[in-house]
C-alpha cells in the first residue's frame, strides 16, 4: 500500500490529496482548491478508476485493527460482567432475607386468613382476659374506697369482699402443708407394711409373688433349684377372678403335676402345694 501511494504521488506530479495511515489502507484528504480535482481527472485512464473510487468513499476503513483494542474491550466487558454478578448476588441475598422475614410480592401472592385461626382466637382470648382483669381491678379499687370510707359494701362488691384475707391464706397454706406431710408419712407406712406382708406370704406359702406386668404375676418357690425356676400366672381381669398358667421353662418340667391338679382337679392351691412338695423332696433327697 505504501508503494501504491508513492506511485500515485510520483505519477501525478502534484500535491496529492492522499495520505497514508499505517492502520488503514489509504485515506483521502478533501482537495482545498477546484484545480487540484481537475488536475487529477486529467491523469491517464489507468488511474481514473482508482481516483473515482477514492472520491466516492472518501476514506477506506481499517482492515486489521490493533489487537490492543480488542484486549481493552475484553477487559471492559469482564469488569462489567463481574460488577453485574456482584450486584446479582447482593440482590439474591436481599430477596432471600425478605422471604425469610415473611415478605412476599402482593401482586403475585395472595394470603388468605382463616376467620377461626388459632392466632385470632388467642388474640381474642387475651383481650377478654385483659378486659376481665381491668373490671376486677376497678371492683377492687371501689371496694378499697368503700372500706376506707367506713361504708357498707354494695351488692355488686359482695363477691369481692368475700375474698380471704392474707391471714386466712397463710392458714390454708399451713393446712395444705400439714396434709401433704401426713400423706407422705402414710405412704412410708404403707410401703413398710407391704414389705412385711410380702415377707410373711413368702414364709407361710413358700412363694415370692412379684407383679411383672399388668394382671401378670411371677411366683418363685423358696425351694427352687435355680434362680430362673418360676411360674407365671395371668389374671383374666383386674379383679383377679380367674388365673391362667403361662408356659415357662420350669413349667415344662412339671407337666404331670399340671395335668393332674390344674387340668383334672382344677385347683391352683393344690398345684402349688404339689410343686412345693416336689421341690422340697428333691432338696431332702439330695
From TrEMBL:
A Pfam family that the UniProt record links to this protein: MAD
Cellular component GO terms, alphabetical: centrosome; kinetochore; MAD1 complex; mitotic spindle; mitotic spindle assembly checkpoint MAD1-MAD2 complex; nuclear envelope; spindle pole
Alphabetical keyword list: Acetylation, Cell cycle, Cell division, Centromere, Chromosome, Coiled coil, Cytoplasm, Cytoskeleton, Isopeptide bond, Kinetochore, Mitosis, Nucleus, Phosphoprotein, Signal, Ubl conjugation
Top-rank taxon: Eukaryota
Coiled coil region boundaries: 74-143, 169-196
Signal peptide region: 1-15
Keyword Nucleotide-binding assigned: no
Main location: nucleus
Protein location: Chromosome, Centromere, Kinetochore; Cytoplasm, Cytoskeleton, Microtubule organizing center, Centrosome; Cytoplasm, Cytoskeleton, Spindle pole; Nucleus envelope
GO biological process, one term: mitotic spindle assembly checkpoint signaling
Listed name of the protein: Mitotic spindle assembly checkpoint protein MAD1
Similarity remark: Belongs to the MAD1 family.
SUPFAM superfamilies reported in the protein's UniProt record: Mitotic arrest deficient-like 1, Mad1
InterPro entries: Mad1
Upper lineage: Eukaryota, Metazoa, Chordata, Craniata, Vertebrata
Chain's role: Component of the spindle-assembly checkpoint that prevents the onset of anaphase until all chromosomes are properly aligned at the metaphase plate. Forms a heterotetrameric complex with the closed conformation form of MAD2L1 (C-MAD2) at unattached kinetochores during prometaphase, recruits an open conformation of MAD2L1 (O-MAD2) and promotes the conversion of O-MAD2 to C-MAD2, which ensures mitotic checkpoint signaling.
Amino acid at each position: 500500500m505504501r508503494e501504491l501511494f508513492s506511485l500515485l504521488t510520483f505519477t501525478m506530479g502534484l500535491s496529492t490529496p492522499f495520505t497514508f495511515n499505517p492502520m488503514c489502507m489509504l485515506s483521502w484528504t478533501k482537495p482545498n482548491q477546484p484545480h487540484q480535482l481537475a488536475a487529477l481527472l486529467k491523469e491517464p485512464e489507468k488511474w481514473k478508476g482508482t481516483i473515482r473510487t477514492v472520491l466516492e468513499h472518501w476514506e477506506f476503513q481499517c482492515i486489521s485493527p490493533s489487537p490492543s483494542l480488542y484486549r481493552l474491550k475484553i477487559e471492559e466487558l469482564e469488569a462489567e460482567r463481574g460488577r453485574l454478578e456482584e450486584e446479582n448476588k447482593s440482590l439474591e441475598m436481599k430477596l432471600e432475607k425478605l422471604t425469610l422475614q415473611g415478605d412476599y410480592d402482593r401482586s403475585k401472592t395472595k394470603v388468605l386468613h382463616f376467620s377461626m385461626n388459632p392466632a385470632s382466637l388467642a388474640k381474642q382470648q387475651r383481650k377478654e382476659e385483659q378486659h376481665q382483669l381491668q373490671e376486677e381491678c376497678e371492683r377492687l379499687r371501689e371496694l378499697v374506697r368503700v372500706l376506707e370510707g367506713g361504708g357498707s359494701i354494695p351488692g355488686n362488691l359482695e363477691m369481692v369482699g368475700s375474698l380471704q384475707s392474707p391471714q386466712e391464706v397463710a392458714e390454708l397454706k399451713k393446712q395444705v402443708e400439714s396434709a401433704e406431710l401426713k400423706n407422705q408419712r402414710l405412704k412410708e407406712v404403707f410401703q413398710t407394711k407391704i414389705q412385711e406382708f410380702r415377707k410373711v406370704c413368702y414364709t407361710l406359702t413358700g412363694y415370692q409373688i412379684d407383679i411383672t406386668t399388668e394382671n401378670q404375676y411371677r411366683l418363685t418357690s423358696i425351694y427352687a433349684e435355680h434362680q430362673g425356676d418360676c411360674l407365671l400366672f395371668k389374671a383374666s381381669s383386674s379383679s383377679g377372678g380367674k388365673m391362667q398358667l403361662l408356659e415357662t421353662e420350669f413349667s415344662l418340667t412339671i407337666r404331670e403335676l399340671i395335668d393332674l391338679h390344674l387340668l383334672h382337679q382344677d385347683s391352683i392351691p393344690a398345684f402349688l402345694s404339689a410343686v412345693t412338695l416336689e421341690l422340697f423332696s428333691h432338696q431332702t433327697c439330695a
